[in-house]
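Support reply, case 0932

Customer input (verbatim):
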Amino acid sequence: MPATRKLVLTKAFEKSYRKFTGKNNLLIASIAKALLKLEQDAYDPSLRTHKLSGNLALYLACSCGYDCRIIFTIENDLDDPGKENIVLLDIGTHDDVY
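Our regenerated output:
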């Protein structure tokens, strides 16, 4: 049975999310759908999850729309060894986050 995963939002992600989405309800809905998929299966083909390189080599990224990327890591939960945390680090356009 695969490890269960929980989304963990960093303060930086929350700030970027507010700035990036503004009051765009379509974008907010698209991101919510991507986050749900991410929690269920971080490697769902529709997310196009991939490892990053260079300064961001420790991180992963996925798509949440045409020009929307989420930067994250997957870490073991220290309190519960059978669980993993998906730590959301940043969100924005391709140029914003890379």
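We compared this against your earlier run and they match. Two observations from our side: The first strand starts at residue 4 and ends at 9. Residues 4-97 form a domain with the YaeB-like fold fold (CATH 3.30.2310.20). Please reopen the case if you see a mismatch on your end.
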